[in-house]
Amino acid sequence: MNRSASLISVALLAVAGIGMTWLVEHASAPQIATEQQLIDSRKLLDVLPPDSYDNQPLQQPLALNAVDLAHSKLLGGYRATRHGQPVAVLLRSQTPGYAGSIELLIAIDASGRLLGVKTLAQSETPALGGHIADWPNGWLQGFSGKSRSEPADAGWALKKDQGQFDQMAGATITSRAAINALHDALRYFDEQRSALLGGGT
Q: What residues does each domain of the chain span?
């Protein structure tokens, strides 16, 4: 075999190899995307008890446009159901923190109680307010079970502001921002309960 024939054979093998690689990647791309969505969903939905719902809440967003509240803005929402009945609503909330916006995912059960809170984005000071992004987050978990009326409106504040809640160490502004966003979300849920739950509990 002469040199030209050898080069042609190598080139054909290279083209065939590239083509096979492209075909394999192209064929498996949907499965990879689906698996990545499931991983992302699990990371977001760990604010909900794992056996409390049987739908895919993130694939069924609520018809919420950006809603300006007293101290925060709602960016969107999702409904979790079990056997077709609403069990919880997840609200994406954005509130101004110390160094920038803080985005929270707030889970509220059908009776209006907080199930869990997770930080989705923040730019707070590392080792201080930045701890709000830790998961699991002991400080945020302390709000589980709270509702719009428990405590009363005046209680939704830091103890230093005559409220009922401790702050994260060294992070007064971040703590106030999160408390205000949670209270906003609970008020909104209470006022829009029927629409958020799909017309009934």
A: 1-45, 57-197
